[in-house]
Every structure is written in C-alpha cells, then in structure tokens.
Specification:
Blueprint: H1 9-18, H2 22-41, H3 45-53, H4 56-63, H5 75-85, H6 94-110, H7 113-116, H8 125-132, H9 152-164, H10 186-195, H11 212-218, H12 227-238, H13 243-250, H14 261-273, H15 282-298, H16 310-331, H17 344-354, E1 367-371, E2 374-380, H18 384-394, H19 402-406, E3 411-419, E4 431-439, E5 444-449, H20 458-471
Antiparallel strand pairs: 1-2, 2-3, 3-4, 4-5
C-alpha cells in the first residue's frame, strides 16, 4: 500500500521496510506506516476539504450565495463561510469584489488558516482589507505558496509579506491589518508606504507635528509596541526624554491619543528638561492637567502651560487630587482613603465624578414614597461616576450612557429603597431595584430594567408608575404585566 505522498518520502520508507531482514521487517514496516500516516495527516486541511465541497469561498463572493449550513462539512471552515455570506457583495465595487475573490480562492486552496483557526482568533476582515489595497500589491496572490511546515499564524503574516513587502519593515506596523475601521485607513497606508521603501514621515495621513527625527526614532521602537505607541516613543525621545520618562508617558492617558498633541509635547519637553522631576509623577501630572483643561474649557477661560514650572505642577497635582478624593468620598458616602491618588484607575474614577457631570433635569423631578415599611425614591444620576456605580451595582451597561447624558439625549434615573428607620440617618443603607432611561425631549421612558437587565417586579413597577404619573411621563407598561 502506498499512501498519498506530500513530498514523496512515504513510498521510499515502505520500500526500505520491505527489503529489511525478516526479524526486523515487521517493526520497520510499522514505523514506516506510522510515518506515512503522519505525513498524510500533515497535509493542509484545505486539501482534504477541497475534495469534499470544492472552492466555496470564491463562489460565495462571485455569486452572492446565501448561507446554507449543510453545504460545508468542516466545522471551522463553516463559520468562516457563514461570515463571508453576511457581507453585501452586490454593494461592493466590482474591482474590490474581484480582488476579494482572488484572495479567498488562494487562501482556501493553499492555506490551512480557515480550517485551523476559529473566527474569534482569525476573522476574514484582514483579508478584505488586503483586497482593498489591490492597487498596492507588489506580487500577485496567485503566486503565493505557503511553507507546509508553517502553522496558521505564520501563514497569515507570510501572505501579507508576499503581497506588500518589498523592503523590511518594523514589526510595530504589522498589526495595522488587524485594526478595526474602514478597509483603507491611515495605519495601513503607512504600512504599504514603508513596505515599498518610503519614509514614514512622508506617508499619507501621517501626523504633521511629528518631526523627521521623531519618525526616524519611531522606526527603532520595540517590536511589542502598537503603531501609536511607537510614534509616541519616537516623539518623547526626540524631545530629549530618557527611557524612564518614555515608559511613564506610555503608561499615561496620552499614550495613544494625539488630539491637541502640540500642547502635550510642550509638557513632555518641560518634563524632559527638568533634572529634579520624578518620572513616576508623569501620570498624575497629565491627569491633573486634563482636569484643569476641562475646568477652564467649561468656564471658557484660556489655559496656559508655559508659565507653570514643573515643581509647581507636581505640588498642585498632589494637593488637587487629595482634595478631589476627599470631596468625592464625602459626597458619595465612601470610606476615608477609598481612593489612592497614585493609581491611574482611581484618578480616572475621580475625573468621572468631578469633570463628566451634568445639571439635574429641570422639568422631571425625583419622588419619595413610603411602601411596605420602606422608603422608596427615584433619583437622577448626574455624573459619569454615578453611572459607573449604578452599572456595577445593577450589572448593566449604563456606564456607557455618559456621553448621551452630557448631550442631553438621555437621562438616567435609579429606583432605590431603604428601611424607614434609617431615613433620618446620614448613612442610609439603600437597596437598588431598577435603572430607568428617559428621553427628555419626548418625555418618554425608553428602558426600565432590574438587576442584570431582568424584568421589573410588581413593587418596583408601581413605584416607577407613581413617579411617571407625577411627572407625566409616557412609555411604561401598566403594573402587574411583568
């Protein structure tokens, strides 16, 4: 018996076993058969699947096939085909559609990626983006042949290097094809430009404030960095920052954000020039300046950084964060020392509490009721910190509604109760029952849910109905229907 060969070695192994001495021929034949089976099983899974259903992916693209689960036997490949069927191919330009057909034909016939990696580990999106850059291909996809010894992840990068790379590129540019967004984006433009031998500083859409020296230094950034982190790394080094300061900046909130970057570069230059500055204070100073800028913008006052020394910034940052922490702990009835101002996460919470706030509704009022031996009330949540606490207590996603509340597109209210014996104390032990979302323009309740988005019970429904009646709000079902 001769098994299907991948490199022609199986038949030779079996022949050698047949000519061996009688006492060892049985053992050698067994070893040879096992080796042949292993080689056969190492063939690309797409080779076996292709014999079952043929090249299905190009047909999905060319004929806009609807999803049919029974047409695909391979469980992993089936999921990728299903994702491909969800794309509205008829709305895609014909040239891009043809490029996609060519790409997926090659990948299905020659690669194991769609047969070994689940969609949560490898989606079809990077290959759609590669097809959108067909005008930048250095080589045709039809002449790509993956190394059979490479696993799926190595084949992935091999395919993109084959299509685009003419000259070596820094490793931090390679994740550009994994970034979400439109098919053509700035990071992918930079990848293509540098892969052709271009200068990163001259790439289309590259930030203008990044100097040639900073762009040159960014090219030597560590391979573990993302694209935005590598650019920030080059900017800090170009301004004279040492490695501790660079690492501290990359741990702060300006690590990947380049809005108003000229302002932040002024701060980084100040910190780099100061001999007494402790890099460990970088995050606190950056968050403090973010707070000051928000306050000045709200009060419509200009904010100037050049007149402030590094030493005064550090002193004011420590004093201000301690004051804010004490204020929030008191207003939200938290224990003293609940916030550690050295923690960037805690400072982010404090910013939510004092910066991202809005005025209470003028025409929708809270209510307090006495029901079944308890004090019930519906109160409005007027800060991003309040929304975060409500989200953690109730197990919902209301923390993401801060932007809508700031724009007055939505208002969030909370239903809570406490024993009547506690209503005259300063530390009432509230039990939270429901989160209510209201459209202030239409005066309509859009959502009303209990803990973990469950339906409201009858007691909560009656309390919210009384509040709706007092404020003439619409949109809540009658009590007893849940």
């Amino acid at each position: 018996m001769t098994l299907p060969t991948h490199e022609g070695g199986e038949s030779e192994s079996i022949t050698a076993a047949q000519t061996a001495s009688p006492e060892s021929s049985g053992e050698m034949q067994a070893v040879a058969v096992v080796a042949a089976i292993r080689r056969f099983c190492s063939l690309p899974t797409s080779y076996l699947a292709r014999n079952v259903h043929g090249p299905l992916m190009p047909r999905i693209i060319a004929e806009n096939l609807t999803w049919n689960r029974k047409s695909v036997r391979h469980p992993i490949f089936r999921q990728h085909c299903r994702a491909l069927c969800k794309i509205p191919w008829t709305k895609m330009p014909e040239a891009c559609r043809e490029s996609c057909r060519r790409v997926f034909t090659v990948l299905e016939e020659r690669s194991t990626m769609f047969f070994e990696l689940m969609p949560q580990f490898l989606s079809i999106s990077p290959f759609l983006r590669a097809a959108a850059y067909a005008d930048a291909w250095e080589r045709l996809p039809e002449v790509w042949y993956p190394d059979p010894n490479h696993h799926a992840a190595e084949q992935f990068w091999s395919f993109f290097e084959h299509l685009f790379v003419r000259y070596p590129i820094p490793e931090f540019l390679t994740p550009a094809w994994l970034e979400h967004g439109p098919l053509r984006s700035s990071p992918r433009d930079w990848f293509v430009h540098v892969a052709r031998g271009g200068n990163l500083r001259e790439a289309p859409g590259f930030p203008e404030h990044v100097t040639r020296r900073a762009a040159h230094l960014a090219m030597s950034a560590p391979s573990t960095f993302q694209i935005s982190e590598a650019i920030r790394w080059g900017l800090v080094h170009a301004l004279g920052g040492d490695e501790p300061l660079t690492r501290a900046v990359l741990r702060s909130r300006i690590r990947t954000h380049f809005e108003k970057d000229r302002f932040w570069l002024t701060l980084i230059e100040k910190l780099a020039a100061s001999e007494s500055f402790d890099p460990g204070m970088t995050g606190m100073v950056v968050d403090f300046i973010t707070y000051l800028a928000e306050v000045h913008a709200r009060e419509q006052r200009p904010f100037c950084l050049k007149q402030r020394s590094v030493e005064s910034l550090c002193r004011q940052a420590v004093r201000t964060w301690n004051e804010i922490a004490a204020k929030v702990e008191k207003s939200h009835q938290l224990d003293d020392g609940a916030f550690d101002i050295q923690s960037s996460g805690h400072r982010a919470l404090l910013l939510r509490a004092v910066v991202y706030v809005w005025l209470p509704s003028e025409d929708i009022k809270p209510i307090r009721l006495r029901r079944m031996g308890s004090c019930w009330e519906v109160v409005e949540l007027c800060s991003a910190f309040d929304l975060l606490q409500e989200s953690q207590r109730m197990g919902n996603c209301v923390a993401g509604y801060a932007g809508a509340c700031l724009e007055n597109c939505c208002r969030i209210w909370s239903l809570r109760s406490a024993p009547i014996d506690d209503q005259h104390t300063n530390t009432m032990k509230w039990n939270h029952h429901a989160t209510v979302a209201v459209n202030p323009q239409k005066r309509t309740i859009t959502q009303a849910r209990g803990r973990f988005n469950e339906q409201l019970d009858n007691i909560s429904m009656r309390a919210i109905s009384a509040w709706c009646a007092a404020n003439r709000l619409r949109g809540l079902p009658a009590p007893g229907l849940t």
